[in-house]
Amino acid sequence: MRPHLPLPTPGPTAGLRARRPARSSLRSLSAAASAVASALLLASCMSGGAADSPGAGGDGDGGGGVGFGGAQDIGEFRGILERGELPGPGTLDANGFFNEHFAPPPAVACSGTLCITPGLSVGRGWLDDTHQTTVQVALTTNVDPADYTRLPMRLVVVVDHSGSMSSDGRLEKVKVGLGTLIDNLKDEDRLALISFDDTVTVDAPFAPALDRAALKAAVAKLQPRGSTNIFDGLKAGLDLLGDAPPSDRQNRVIFLSDGLATAGDTSTASIIAMATSRISRGIGLTTIGVGNEFDAPLMRGLAERGAGNFYYLEDATAAGEVFHDELDYFMSPLALELELAATTPAEWAMNGAVGSSLWRQLSSGSAAIAMPAVFLASRTGQAPDPGGGRRGGGSTIFVDMSALGSRPGRVVDLRLSYRRPGSAERITTTATIDYDQDPRATPESPYLSYDGMAERYAMYNMYLGLHAATEYASFGSYDCAVAALSATRRHGKAWLAEHEADQDLTADLALVDRFLANLAERGASVDRGLAGCPSVQPGEPPIWGDDEIDGHVHPLACAAGGNGSGWLAIAGVVLFAARRRRARR
Q1: Pairing mode, if any, of strands 409-419 and 335-343?
Q2: What is the spatial distance between Cα 175 and Cα 58, in angstroms, rounded to a whole number?
Q3: pLDDT tens per residue across span 470-480
Q4: Are residues 138 and 161 in the same domain?
Q5: Is there a single domain that holds both residue 177 and residue 313?
Q6: Rounded to an integer, what distance in angstroms lies between the CA atom of residue 152 and that of residue 188?
Q7: Domain span at 570
Q8: 8 Å CB contact between 185 and 194
Q9: pTM of the entire predicted model
Q10: Shared domain check, 324 and 347
Q11: Kind and range of the H or E element at 118?
C-alpha cells in the first residue's frame, strides 16, 4: 500500500508532546494551503490584465524574491531535532520550509511591481517513485533588494516577561534580538515597548525622536515574573498605534511570547477576534515564539491575519537573523489585498497544494485565495550570510495535479489582482499554464519547464519526505518514518550528484540525517520499505488495513521512549481500530 502525498497540517507545538487539533480544523487548514498554490501557479503564461502585465519572456529580471505572509519558520522543527527529540507535523510549515531555499527565477519581462514565475514539473515523486505532476508558482519583483527603501516605521514591540521566560535563557534571547532591532532602526523610525505578565506595562511610549539608549535601558530592565495575559498585552500594543494609524508610515506590532494564555481572557477565538478588529485599521502583526511550549496555532493565526510571519527564536543567532535580516524587509509590503482564483479544464484536477495555509478549494477544478500582503524576500543568493541562517529565500506554492485524460494542452487558468500600498487601484492579470506532452506519461528524467526549477523540484520532494516522516513518527510508526526519510535521502543524494552544489539541499539532508539518528535512538528499524507502510492522509492518522494492524502497531510501544510505555501500544490499537470503523461507515 503506497502512501498518498502528504499535505502540511497544523499540529503539535513542540515535538510529540503537544495535543493535535480537531480534525475539522486540520482539514480546513490543510485546504488552506492548496488554493493559493493553485491560484498563483496558474499565472504562468501571463496574458491580458491591467497596467501590470508581464510578457511571456524577455531580457528583464525580477529584482528579488517575494514572501507571502503567514509563514511559520522551521526554527522550532530544527531545534527539536537538535535536542534529540521527534518533531510533530505542525512544526514543519511548507511556506516556512520553502522560505529557507533560494532558487533563481527565470528571466521575465515584467513592468509591474510583481512578476509571476510559474513552472511545471512532471516526473516521479521521491517518496514512492510514482507519477508526479506539479505546478509551481513563485513571485518576483522589480524592486531590487539592494535598492529597497521601506517606509519609516511606527513599531510597537510587545514582550511576554512572565515567569516561564526565565527558563532556558528565553528572555535573554529576546533581549539580544531587541538590541539588534534597535541598532538597525533608522533615525526616522519610532519604537515603543510594552511588556506583560498578568498585568501590562508601557515601558517606553513613542517619543518625538528615536532614543536608542533609552530603549535599550527599558529592554535591560525586563525581568521574568507573573503569569501570561496575552489578550491584554497584545491589545495594548495594537491600541497604542491608534484608531487611524498614519499612512505615511509602516504601522506594525511585533508580539513575542513563550507560552499559553493563563490570565485575563484566555480564549483563542477572543484573542484573534480582538486582533483582527484592530488589524483592519491598517496595522501589521508579526509574531515570535520562544521556548518549547508556546501556542503555535494562536501565534500563526495572528500572523496570518496581520500580514506577518510567525518566527521561532531557537538561539541568539536566530534572534539576530529574525530581528535584522528578515524583519528589515518584512516591514513594508510590496502589494496588498491579493486575490487569486484558479480553474482547471475538465481534463485536469487539483488534488491539493502546499506553500500557504490561506487557500480555499471550491471543487477539484476551482480554488480561490485572499492574501493580505506580500513582501520582499531578504536573501538574494544560494549561500546564507556567514554566521547567519537560511530564512528569507522567498515563498513558493506547489499544486499536485492529476491528468484525467491523455490530451496535451491547457493545465490551469488563473486570475490575479492586487493593489499597491497607498493606492486604491486594483491591478489585474490573467494567466494560463500549458503542457504539450501526454500528461499521463512519466518521462525517464523529470520534465522541468526551466532550469531554475531543479532546486524547487528538489525542495518540494524534500519537504514531502520530511512531512511524511513527522506524520508517521507522531503515531509511533518509527520504522515507516525511517523508510520515508531513507527514500528521500537516497533521491536527494542522487540529485545533488547530478546538479551543481546546492547548499540549501545539503542543509536539508543534514536535517534528514539528524531525524534518522533520533529515530535510531528509539530503536527504529531500517529494514522496512514504504510499500509495507500505511497511507498518510492530511490531518489523519496513518490508515492501516485489516491485515496490517498486527504488523504495524508495535512501534507505538516505544513512542514515549524507555520502559513502561506499553500502554501506548494499547491506545494505538484502539485508535486505529476506531479509525477503521469510521472509514467503513
Answers
A1: antiparallel
A2: 47
A3: 999 988 899 99
A4: no
A5: yes
A6: 6
A7: 544-584
A8: no
A9: 0.73
A10: no
A11: strand 114-124
